[in-house]
């Protein structure tokens, strides 16, 4: 089964991708993992990507797509995969469609993790990071009454990208870039929305229920 997972920051894509891929015994493939693997291995694509990353620039689509193509061509992805973080826009989705068509394959289903904007803001802006051990706590979910890490006694702080105004800006960017992508897959007839609120296990069960008709 070939799956694409989409959703806004804070929707739980990374967690759900891991659970779903494990349940289906297919590789979870994310652009972050691909970048790290290519950079650490010193591949030609990795060296090109690192040059952009070191300057703080976005890695161009052509390099990202080339890395994804190489990864999808590996043996473990031959019978299926779950893509997390790719494609991010319609041009990437069109290119992915062409790549898979070359192998007489296609994306079977696109799962969109749907979560209310205010819930995303609550999830992300409530996170606090320990300055000593790095553990992440949440002011609501962990019932934290102070700014001290219960594990090591380190001071907790809020990362800049977890501040409410930054989170809301990230959501605006997501909507600008990804709303057309969601519509693209809806037009393809393979988009399924999954309610991403509630306990992790419940969200996973909803996703697996949506996949069950295809898992034969």
TrEMBL record:
Residues 127-161 form the Adenylate kinase active site lid domain. Residues 30-59 are annotated as: NMP. It is found in: Cytoplasm. PROSITE patterns: ADENYLATE_KINASE. It catalyses: AMP + ATP = 2 ADP. Pathway: Purine metabolism; AMP biosynthesis via salvage pathway; AMP from ADP: step 1/1. Zn(2+) binds at residues 130, 133, 149, 152. Its EC number is 2.7.4.3. ATP binds at residues 10-15, 127, 198. CDD domains: ADK. It is an enzyme of class 2 (transferase). Keywords: ATP-binding, Cytoplasm, Kinase, Metal-binding, Nucleotide biosynthesis, Nucleotide-binding, Transferase, Zinc. One of its GO terms (molecular function) is kinase activity. Catalyzes the reversible transfer of the terminal phosphate group between ATP and AMP. Plays an important role in cellular energy homeostasis and in adenine nucleotide metabolism. Belongs to the adenylate kinase family. NCBIfam families: adk, PRK00279.1-2, PRK00279.1-3, PRK14527.1. Consists of three domains, a large central CORE domain and two small peripheral domains, NMPbind and LID, which undergo movements during catalysis. The LID domain closes over the site of phosphoryl transfer upon ATP binding. Assembling and dissambling the active center during each catalytic cycle provides an effective means to prevent ATP hydrolysis. Some bacteria have evolved a zinc-coordinating structure that stabilizes the LID domain. Monomer. This is Adenylate kinase. It comes from Actinomadura keratinilytica. The lineage of its organism: Bacteria, Bacillati, Actinomycetota, Actinomycetes, Streptosporangiales. The gene is adk.
